[in-house]
Amino acid sequence: MLLTNDENQNAVSVQTEKREVFLSERDDVIMVPVLNQRVSAGPGQEYIEAYSSGVTVPVVERIIRPYPKESIRIVEVRGDSMTGVNIFDGDYVIFSQGEVRLDGIYVLAIGDEMYVKRLEFDPFEKKITIISENQNYKDKVVSADSDLIRIEGKVIGWIHKHPY
Prior knowledge:
Layout: E1 3-6, E2 11-15, E3 20-23, E4 29-40, E5 45-46, E6 52-60, H1 61-64, E7 72-78, E8 92-97, E9 104-110, E10 113-122, E11 127-131, E12 140-143, E13 149-159
Parallel strand pairs: 4-7
Antiparallel strand pairs: 1-2, 2-3, 4-6, 5-10, 7-8, 8-13, 9-10, 9-13, 10-11, 11-12
């Protein structure tokens, strides 16, 4: 999700993976907790017992539908493996904790490290393909039955900070 301010329309534009949404002062917002956990778009971030950092960020309610408001969390991203979808080092991903359905971008744990990656599910072979959106990183295939992988939730958008 890319937030930009359009002074002429007095609105904010939100970019998601599929579309751009213009926000106005009439939109309802919810305050979403930012977790103290960082997730890696690269070599991995150590898993810690995640809890709210005490910081909340306003998110437009219609962006998170149909996910339950109480399941929405935000975590900071470290690394460059998701630059192909414009998720950069220092950005924040918004995810629905506990939501696992269909292919998409997810927050997940592999062993003791936390990541944000694209996942493709193959129910016939019972495998999950873990994809980085950066050609410098190779895809990984794991068994869907593996105890090594734990999917924390589905990413529904991201807040992008311009690096310039």
